[in-house]
Amino acid sequence: MEKLEKIQAAFKEIIDPSTDHSLAEGQRIINIEVKRSDTPPHQEQIFIHYQRDGLDIGMKRELEGIIVERLGRDLDPDTFFLLSHSEHQQPPAGTPSKGEDHSDHQHDDHQAPEMNAPARVDSIKRIIVIASGKGGVGKSSFAVNLAISLNQLGKKSALLDADIYGPSLPMLLGKRDVKPIANKDGKVIPILSHGIKFISFGHFVGEDEPVIWRGPMLGGVLKQFLFDVDWGELDYLLIDMPPGTGDMPLSLSQIVEVDGSIIISTPQDVALLDSRKGLNMFSQVNIPVLGMVENMSSFICDGCDKEHMLFGSGGVQKAATDLSAKYLGGIPFEKELGLSSDRGEPYMSNPAYSERPVWNAYKNIAREIDQLVEVGAAASHN
Ligand code: ADP
User: Fold this and answer.
1) pTM of the predicted model, to two decimals?
2) What one-character DSSP code corresponds to residue 352?
3) How far is the CA of 175 from the centre of ligand 1 (A)?
4) Using CA atoms, how far apart are residues 276 and 261, in angstroms rounded to an integer?
5) In the chain, what's the furthest Cα-to-Cα distance?
6) Ligand 1 atom 17: the closest Cα is on which residue?
7) Are residue 239 and residue 183 in the same domain, yes or no?
8) What is the pLDDT of residues 86-104, one digit of tens each?
9) CB 261 near ligand 1, within 6 Å
10) Does residue 52 form part of some domain?
């Protein structure tokens, strides 16, 4: 059976929780499009657009979960598919975007609607993604400590943990057993820890559950995380991405305007890291690469407090130069950073560490990023 037929067959069996009819019978599915990506290897991509009118937040999650689970089973595992939605009765707060049509029109079933243009979340000034070529390089610790450093600069920052393979923000922020709840408007209230609001895939999947969520689930859940969470006014939302070059940047770039990406690497991984692929991936989906950070760039010895360059110096800086990316700085390895992460008390939230090399590195990198973003914003207004 062709992909399209498999999807249509699945929709005959999936029941719309608001009507008890199948998705094939109702008006919920607006469009199914199979396209080839513009960039090599010209992968086949499936875009399913549906409308969410009349579904409450629980129904949305339930329906999207069922669609994703079912299509994940019926289509072959490499198939990229993205579930996008529109909503007329209750537009998600903060979604009005440049050029988006907000009239309360009905879609003509015979006419394929345009895919939603990436939106801006009104209350969030900048969205920055934190990415790495592989896991374990300190991407999540970086996201957490950068958010705190930006907060210390007076820039209100929050975190969205989109790392489906190892959502670690609940642990790093000491909120493993806390579940987010909804407010009276049905919006999810983010968890607050050390002055940082955050939300994580980890809150919605059990730690031992196998990861079956792929492109489409990411699209649906990311959208909810961006638009159905009560973020309040923010200068920065940092998104902790899954490691590697998966579907996430593409899904994300179709949902929301992302202002920049930061790539984290360790000196010993930079040779292995397919940095060029990573950087290309972001530029292909119009997410500017703000720069690269070297984590565990040197070792601060416990006893002597001296800095040792265990893997030589300048590895990531050189890679950044080769790739025409900006080098944003290096963060030394310090045992206390790992220990404080394990305790759920981020390093940068503890003034006892102030003026230590790791502390100063974070301060400098946060300042550098904030300036870069300001310059970028000023340039785009000219
Ligand atoms: P990733 O998100 O890339 O998988 P994590 O942020 O979870 O990586 O970090 C992996 C481990 O390395 C964690 O135990 C973390 O505390 C530790 N770690 C990260 N950066 C440093 C550092 N600069 N010094 C010491 N330990 C670090």
Assistant:
1) 0.72
2) G
3) 18
4) 14
5) 73
6) 338
7) yes
8) 766 443 333 333 333 333 3
9) no
10) yes
- pLDDT tier, 340 (very low <50, low <70, confident <90, very high otherwise): very high
Q: DSSP for 217-235?
A: HHHHHHHHHHHSB---SEE
Q: Is the residue at 104 inside a domain?
A: no
Q: Whose CA is nearest to atom 22 of ligand 1?
A: 333
Residue among 141, 266, 307, 360 to mutate when testing ligand 1 (max atoms within 8 A of CB): 141
Q: Quick count: other Cβ atoms within 10 Å of Cβ 126?
A: 22
In a domain, residue 80? The reply is yes
Domain containing 175 equals: 124-380
Q: Indicate the number of domains in the chain.
A: 2
- 69 lies in the same domain as 152: no
Position 366 in a domain: yes
Q: Are residues 144 and 281 in the same domain?
A: yes
Distance in Å, CA 226 to ligand 1 centroid: 26
- Scored b (16 or more CB within 10 A) or e, 178-197 reads eebeeeeeebbebbebbebb
Give the atom of ligand 1 at the shortest distance from the alpha carbon of 166.
Answer: 4
Same domain, 164 and 251: yes
Q: How far, in Å, is the centroid of ligand 1 from the Cα of 337? A: 8
Q: What is the pLDDT of residue 69?
A: 78
Domain final residue pick, 86, 110, 134: 86
Query: Which of 72-81, 133-142, 340-349 shows the lowest mean pLDDT across its residues?
Result: 72-81
Which protein residue has the closest C-alpha to ligand 1 atom 12?
138
Ligand 1 atom with the shortest distance to the CA of 240: 2
